Amino acid sequence: MSWLEKEEYLSKTFEFADFIQAFGFMTKVAIIAEKLNHHPDWRNVYNKVLFKLSTHEAGNKVTQKDRDLADAISKLYLEEKSQSV
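RE: above sequence
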């Protein structure tokens, strides 16, 4: 699952059936982010969750921390989608 990579951030938008599913996904991502000690810049608009990942300590550049979090988010999304089918 590919993310848009720019020099200063990774971005991706995930879409869900409704607000409840989107918010539930955000709750699970929050737990992952806390475990990785790397917190996303994100927002929710109804059934969409939008992410921009960068590492502040690295001058707002993309680092391995961002790639690891992006991978974990993508994996969770695929798991959520497979369960809702």
